[in-house]
Amino acid sequence: MSGTEENQGENKAFTEECHKVLMAVSDALYVIGGKWKLMIIIAMARGNKRFTEIQRQVTGISARVLSSELKELEMNGFIVKKVENGYPVTIEYELLPYSDTLEELVTAMTKWGMQHREKVKAEMSMGKSGKLKV
User: Fold this and answer.
1) How would DSSP label each residue in 44-85?
2) CA 39 – CA 11 distance, rounded (Å)
3) What is the mean pLDDT of each run of 10 residues along the chain (134 residues)?
4) 27 and 38 share a domain?
5) Number of structural domains, the chain?
6) Would you state the pLDDT for residue 13?
7) CATH number, domain containing residue 43
8) Contact criterion met (CB below 8 Å) for 108 and 101
9) Are residue 11 and residue 67 in the same domain, yes or no?
């Protein structure tokens, strides 16, 4: 096989691998992307089960957006909505075991987010000269 044919084979394999990675990330972002979904799951994992509890913990989310995000999380198998008939009717949301598959991702994002915040704070306290501002 000539060098050109070999390179084309390598490029094709690289392109196919890149496509697989991009599709996987696209699928993940479709399901849990956006500003709120992971924050809702984290709030629920910390014991917030009722709509108002979740809304209170996830600062800045509107009731309309929370309702929409909860429906999408339910549709994708992360949570279940439980309605208890009685007076008054009580509605609670519960994480399903599938949400546990996000634990490693949330841990990595938490670690990176803390690291990034510290980096930005450190850069803000330094001047352009690289010296600490006093």
Assistant:
1) HHTT--SHHHHHHHSTT--HHHHHHHHHHHHHTTSEEEEEE-
2) 39
3) 59 84 93 93 95 97 97 97 92 96 94 94 74 53
4) no
5) 2
6) 74
7) 1.10.10.10
8) no
9) no
Domain-located, residue 134: no
For helices 103-125 and 37-45, what crossing angle results, to 10°?
A: 110
Question: Phi and psi dihedrals of 86, rounded to 5?
Answer: 165, -170
Helix (H) or strand (E) holding 94: strand 90-95
Q: List, in sequence order, every residue forming a beta bridge with 91; answer none if it has no partner.
A: 83
pLDDT at 8: 63
**Where in the sequence is the domain holding 2, given as residue range(s)?**
1-32
Instruction: Record the pTM.
Output: 0.78
The CA distance from 94 to 79, in Å, is 5
Q: Examine the domain organization and report whether 14 and 63 are in the same domain.
A: no
Is 66 among the domain residues? yes
The pLDDT of residue 98: 96
CA 96 to chain centre: 16
pLDDT at residue number 134:
45
